[in-house]
Design brief:
Layout (H helix, E strand, L loop, with lengths): L2 H11 L5 E4 L4 E8 L2 E8 L2 H16 L1 H6 L9
Antiparallel strand pairs: 1-2, 2-3
Length: about 80
């Protein structure tokens, strides 16, 4: 992966909450924090897949009702 591709991947990850591009693994990583503890939803090939995994993990950690009330806890995907 060249520098141009890495920069494009990092830019794509910025569109989603909790999604980061891991240059070592050349994939997108999903991380959530709850009570000062880090929870991972794994590595994914695309930023969109990572955002979906973030949403799924957030629902299991925070609960569906709490997520519906709190803005900014999950990713809105088109």
């Amino acid at each position: 992966m060249n520098l141009k591709q890495k920069n494009a991947a990092k830019k794509a990850a910025k569109n989603f909450k909790g999604v980061y591009f891991d240059t070592f693994h050349a994939s997108f990583r999903t991380i959530l924090f709850l009570n000062s503890k880090r929870h991972s939803a794994g590595y994914h090939k695309t930023a969109e897949e990572a955002a979906k995994a973030y949403n799924k993990k957030a629902k299991s950690l925070f609960g569906k009702e709490k997520l519906a009330k709190a803005k900014g806890y999950w990713n809105v995907l088109n």
